[in-house]
Fold this sequence. Notes:
The complex is a heterodimer of chains A (345) and B (585).
Chain A: E1 10-11, H1 44-48, H2 98-116, H3 166-177, E2 189-190, H4 199-218, E3 226-231, E4 238-241, H5 248-258, H6 260-269, H7 280-288, E5 292-297, E6 303-305, H8 311-317, E7 320-325, H9 326-331
Parallel strand pairs in A: 3-7
Antiparallel strand pairs in A: 1-2, 3-4, 5-6, 5-7
Chain B: H1 2-9, H2 14-21, H3 25-33, H4 38-45, H5 49-58, E1 61-64, H6 72-78, E2 84-88, H7 108-117, E3 123-127, H8 133-142, E4 148-152, E5 155-158, H9 159-168, E6 174-177, E7 181-183, E8 202-204, H10 214-223, E9 229-231, H11 238-247, E10 253-255, H12 268-276, E11 283-285, H13 299-302, E12 307-309, H14 317-324, E13 332-336, H15 340-350, E14 356-360, H16 375-384, E15 390-395, H17 400-409, E16 415-420, H18 435-444, E17 450-452, H19 459-468, E18 474-478, H20 484-493, E19 499-503, H21 509-513, E20 524-528, H22 534-543, E21 547-552, E22 564-569, E23 582-584
Parallel strand pairs in B: 1-2, 2-3, 3-4, 4-6, 5-7, 6-8, 8-9, 9-10, 10-11, 11-12, 12-13, 13-14, 14-15, 15-16, 16-17, 17-18, 18-19, 19-20
Antiparallel strand pairs in B: 20-22, 21-22, 21-23
GO biological process, one term (chain A): regulation of DNA-templated transcription
Family (chain A): Belongs to the Aux/IAA family.
Function (chain A): Aux/IAA proteins are short-lived transcriptional factors that function as repressors of early auxin response genes at low auxin concentrations.
Amino acid sequence: MSTTPLEHDYIGLSESSSVPRSSDKLSYSSSSSSCTEENYTSSNKACLNFKETELRLGLPGSQSPGRKPSHGLSLFGKDIENNNSNSNNTNGYAAPSPLKSLVSGAKRGFSDALDGASRNWGLSINGKPDAELGKGAVLYSPRGGLDDKCKIVKEVDVLPLSPKPVQEKKNQVPALNENEPTSAPAAKAQVVGWPPIRSFRKNTMASNLVKNNDAAEGKSGSGCLYVKVSMDGAPYLRKVDLKIYSNYMELSSALEKMFSCFTIGQCDSHGLPGQDGLSESRLMDLLHGSEYVLTYEDRDGDWMLVGDVPWDMFTETCRRLRIMKGSEAIGLGMYHSLMYKVTYL
Amino acid sequence: MESESKRKKESPNTAELAVTASFPDEVLEIVLSLLTSHRDRSSVSLVCKDWYHAERWSRTQVFIGNCYSVSPEILTRRFPNIRSVTLKGKPRFSDFNLVPPNWGADIHAWLVAFAAKYPFLEELRLKRMAVSDESLEFLASNFPNFKLLSLLSCDGFSTDGLAAIATHCKNLTELDIQENGIEDSSGSWLSCFPESFTSLEVLNFANLTSEVNTDALERLVSRCKSLKVLKVNKSISLEQLQRLLFRAPQLEELGTGSFLQDLTARPYADLESAFNNCKNIHTLSGLWEAVPLYLPALYNSCANLTFLNLSYTALQSGEFAKLVVHCPRLRRLWVLDTVEDKGLEAVGSNCPLLEELRVFPADPFDEEIIHGVTEEGFVAVSFGCRRLHYVLYFCWQMTNAAVATIVQNCPNFTHFRLCIMTPGLPDYLTNEPMDEAFGAVVKTCSKLQRLSVSGLLTDLTFEYIGKYAKNLETLSVAFAGRSDRGMQCVLEGCPKLRKLEIRDCPFGNEALLSGLEKYESMRSLWMSACNVTMNACRRLAKQMPRLNVEVMKEDGSDDSQADKVYIYRTVAGPRRDAPPSVLTL
Lengths: 345, 585
């Protein structure tokens, strides 16, 4: 049993404390939980608004989508209120990542937010390169022109992409041993053996990713770069050679053609008014519209929205493509995707 | 319990005594040979000397929960006629990489002893043992009657070892390779079964990755007419599976390979008829990379399914819900959390006989991505499946109220393993600790044997456990508690506690030392990343000579702290095969 570098054990001990799931709070205010290095104990409320509308980068899907570089997409996040446990103590480990609760609570709100915002799911051809393709996240809220519902800012912490910060674990362990309440480690660190899942299972899940990657790479020897393309709801996969396209537009039209039959099927099942002989433009609308999003899995196993990075970088890092339903993409946290990036307030 | 039966049996009057004395040993042995439960046998052996000897001569199976609690010499001396051995080695947290490599639990010394004393050994079941190819070769060559090999969570061997088994074990009936740290270099081992070999009843290689020779597999399956369990690996395609199914209509447990086919697949009807051909399948697993299109082929087979293991299949809620509608007789279900709450709702609605549910996380390390199951799914299952008694549930959020509802619906839990994946997370609605949740569990579920706790927990949880969990045998604790009192409550309050494993909790020396005699009634105690010092461990070791107190040191840590402590009772004395990083005090 080897501990492969693929094992990431995260203990999101960083953030703020737990956030109450505000299913009733459909309106999000732009707040941020970030209380980075500090204790998420008290001053969260202070930390709340605006303080951390920092630009962080690179969460899967945190890029901007949108076929048209118009606005975009909203930001779904959650109201992070920190009237939380921190009041009495935390045992040092208390509520580490409310991030998660926050995020999952937000799940409920998403579809609501989704309805509200003007979305432009679809392939994005936004050339803005990101500085880091890391797991950090950005959240910010382009206030202008968006629904009230969609102004959230939430933020996850920043984790340098590589190397895997094993050292952090060491820092962390003694902290845990100190029996001091609340010295919550700030950034996400890896904790060995947590969650308690057998190595075999972890490696199998991880190697499923790698295997697909290898399969893709295996074919790239002769100057092609075949990647698998799947579409939610379609019974089989296709493979495309990324090298034959030179930009996102070409890729997206090719994919639309390839999977058009399924899209049509899907339309009907979603109760959209069927039309005899869908026109090309209708087709584009469907793909454009809130139905599907094109995503890809990068070298690190992260799912990203297609279109954020320069085409060349994309072809180098893309392992497989997946056309997923918009709602699913949101469900996967791609609410982070943005059209604009707002700089530090 | 043991003492009770002893007392009962020892209170005969003189007349009975006389009878017992003239009772031929052989008859007693025959009678006792009918006893299979090892606990009953333990009790029997304590009655009197005659019974002790009768029991030891008549015993054919032995279960050793901690391979270091006894030595091969002691074992073979006491029990001369063993045919079946089950051995467990490393502490359970080794599954999560908390135990240093080369820690021990090597099977070889045991095999050598068995070769001398149990040449007719038939069955070997190993869990968390270090097994090398040499050991497997030794096993294959020294036990002519060898029939059954089952390996789970073992490591140190490769497919070469399997080849040795396949080649030499002429009487093999069962080869069960579960999740292990095996070096999988090639699938050629499967071709090593001789053409004359026909005795196989169970073949499980689902967790290997290398391609095997499909012709060899097909021939093997054809000639083993008693094959009941076949679990193939991912390399076996749907088409190959179909052929195998036609050759083995008597199958009862099936693990499919890759359930994915390219567009040029045979018609779906073939697949369906292949499954329909096997009318006895009650257990289904595998389904690697399943594509929803082909799932309906299983629907007819699902009617009789009692155990469905989808824990390596990333199904979404819709596809899963459609499948589960066809599984009304399901008793055990393992899934990935990709099925989400909706999928679990479908389970609640369709599987009233469900007894065991395990929900594994598909993506446990990525918190930013919203996914998985929440408390709602669990609650939904509890409403629909009142017979539920075993649960393993990985989730990102939970509430006290939900757990209270769950145990109210299902008060018969024997195993309640809840893992809220973010350590120390409180009830996300109320922001309170999760104490009341586990309080509800122990108060309501009087039959509870195994409990794993998680979330933000104070000492109150442990007070509840100590006070109410009177049948608790195994407790796993991580990132919980406030003070030594928590651990003390458990040690003082749980009479049947056998295994206690603790990590990253603020329990210290006082807690550790409060359990002195208790540890002799337990199999083992594990404490890592707690507040225990070396001195306390030394004190413990000194006072309790029948315990082995082992400390695993991490590099660069404080010398006075005992980073990882593993304490277990033993009659074999301190072990001599520990690596340098493990100190026996």
